Amino acid sequence: MVAVAAPNGATPLLAVRGLTKRFGNRVVLDGIDLTVTPHETLVVIGPSGSGKTTLLRCINRLEQPDAGTVAVGDERIGERDGRPASETYLARQRSRIGFVFQRFNLFSHLTALDNVAIGPRRVLGHARRAAREIAAAQLERVFLAEHMDKRPSQLSGGQQQRVAIARALAMDPQLFLFDEPTSALDPELVAEVLDVMRDLARGGMTMMVVTHEMSFARQVAHRVIFMDAGAIVEERPPEEIFTAPREERTRRFLAHFLR
Asked: N or C terminus of the chain with fewer C-beta within 10 Å?
């Protein structure tokens, strides 16, 4: 496919074109167009029900869009040679996209180490020892070296979410999707997860983050998108969108957070 130029002129790592999704008669995504360039952090904000989570799930093909395309690099997700991809091929494509959910989705019977190692073993085909070495390195990266042998029930919510981040990192993704990763956490645990995400952004990880953490968005994002009713209402650099939003819908939404 022909690469579409990103806003800053760079070739995008992620290119979404005309993405549309309906649930019954309700249009949840209405022809979304966006790009994310390598090493960029794009933050998506908006009210509940605006389509943010569905957008991420369609990018990763956890939801099948009704129309539009998603490309990571020069490959369309969900397709192979112009035809629908098999589940095996789609799993390989998904391995290029890390996804951290609101809920941690860890295996309760496995240790933190084995929760992280399972992807490199089963999807990437690494031997058990090599997969565990990868897992240990990623758990250390998210400051959990002392908790590798604990099961999820022995970890705090913030620690479990960091295990989930390490699990995604262990797959060596090109693109990281975060779907409100702190929304299920007690307030005192939010900072430890955001600190890890800041480190990833500073390290050049390409990230698309759905969040209500406006201070994080202001500090880390290169661009911020405001969504409402399944559409992108406004897209600007963080200082501009937070200090002087152009659209009345954006102003009303941000008024709840920036008093």
From this structure: C
Instruction: Give mean pLDDT, residues 177-194.
Output: 92
User: Is the Cβ–Cβ distance between 123 and 97 less than 8 Å?
Assistant: no
In the chain, % helix, strand, coil (3-state, to 5) comes to 35, 25, 40
DSSP state of 78: T
- Four-residue CA torsion sign, 85, 86, 90, 93: negative
Strands 75-76 and 67-72: antiparallel
Instruction: Give the integer Cα–Cα distance in Å for 111 and 117.
Output: 10
Q: Do the beta carbons of residue 96 and residue 175 sit within 8 Å?
A: yes
Tokens representing residue 204 in the block: 């050049």
Supply angle C-alpha 114, 119, 120, rounded to 5: 95
Q: What percent of the chain has pLDDT over 70?
A: 96
126 Cβ neighbours under 8 A, 6+ residues apart: 120, 134
- Do 157 and 184 meet the contact criterion of CB atoms below 8 Å apart? yes
Residue 9: pLDDT band (50, 70, 90) is low
Query: Residue 234 CB: number of other CB atoms within 10 A?
Result: 20
pLDDT digits (tens, 9 = 90+) for 58-79: 999 999 999 999 999 989 999 9
